[in-house]
Amino acid sequence: MKKPAPATPTEKEQLHPRNPHRAPYDFPQLSQASPALKAFVQPNKFGNLSIDFADPAAVKALNRALLKQFYGIEHWDIPRGYLCPPIPGRADYVHYLADLLADSNGGQLPRGEDITVLDVGVGANCIYPIIGRREYGWHFVGSDVDGVAVRAAQQIEASNPSLAGAIEARLQPSRTRIFDGLIQAGEVFDLTMCNPPFHASAAEAAAGSQRKVAGLGTGPARGRGPRPTLNFGGQHNELWCEGGEAGFMRRMVQESGRRPTSAYWYTSLVSKKETLPGVYRALQTAGATDVRTIEMAQGQKKSRLVAWTFLKPQQQAAWRKARWSPAGA
């Protein structure tokens, strides 16, 4: 008789120590919190309760349950076909950003709504602001080039009292700009964050998604038709852009360099290791005073976030005193 595979706990143990998703999913408990999930839960090939991660409806139901149980979100929905991201990995980014702030503040983690974060590409799912608000009380501005995504994020904020006044979703009017035309005069952010489009074309995005679906399937889709190409969904601007990840990062660095005092830390996820040398060269050219790379992992997936600042030591000290004082932390 085949023993249950221990892969899931091992993979999740690689998550950040404060990440609440390090333990295996408790599907009976999640189904109790969100009964709609129960229809998708079944034993996988190892005999463990799971869902078919190649089924978009199952993934969406799991996200609803996780957001309700761990983050107090009663009402969450996204338009059909929009990105429905895996929450554990998204939470890791937020927790590592909190560590970055603490490391910049003598070990004390700045909390509360006075800490402002810009989420570039907030998406219809609004996941990063939900997690950051719940875990650290931060205030978020979320930008997106897609009007449907902006309205969906606004609806999530309006439908959940715990998010009231905590998230401002803004439309970025230019699909080729990141900070230009978005950050307002005199506006500053303690952090910016971004999960950029990885791919350079629709064909490349589709091929990547097909590989992911092939690796994620846990069983038949229970009569709901053929497996989809995009199990986590995703629109054009969420999955690919001209120049791919490398081109997007180059533009982000250039635009951040034109507004060196608009943020203490600019940050972005970088999925492809081969993108890093170009990012470092661009940051050197732009005049970054400190660049940090933080490795992250979940199972076989390796990623990292790159953080940079243009502030000189005296400017950093003034920022900390004005915004991260112990009384306001």
TrEMBL record:
UniProt entry keywords in alphabetical sequence: Cytoplasm, Methyltransferase, rRNA processing, S-adenosyl-L-methionine, Transferase
Subcellular location(s): the record lists: Cytoplasm
Reaction equation(s) it catalyzes: adenosine(1618) in 23S rRNA + S-adenosyl-L-methionine = N(6)-methyladenosine(1618) in 23S rRNA + S-adenosyl-L-homocysteine + H(+)
Q: InterPro entries, per this entry?
A: METTL16/RlmF, rRNA_lsu_MeTfrase_F, SAM-dependent_MTases_sf
Which Gene Ontology molecular function entries are recorded, alphabetically? 23S rRNA (adenine(1618)-N(6))-methyltransferase activity
Q: What class of enzyme is it?
A: transferase
Give the chief site where it resides: cytoplasm
Its EC number is 2.1.1.181
Q: Where is this region: Disordered?
A: 1-27
Stored NCBIfam families: PRK11727.1 (NF008725)
Q: Which family does it belong to?
A: Belongs to the methyltransferase superfamily. METTL16/RlmF family.
Outline what the protein does. Specifically methylates the adenine in position 1618 of 23S rRNA.
Q: What is this protein called?
A: Ribosomal RNA large subunit methyltransferase F
**Source organism of this protein record:** Hymenobacter monticola
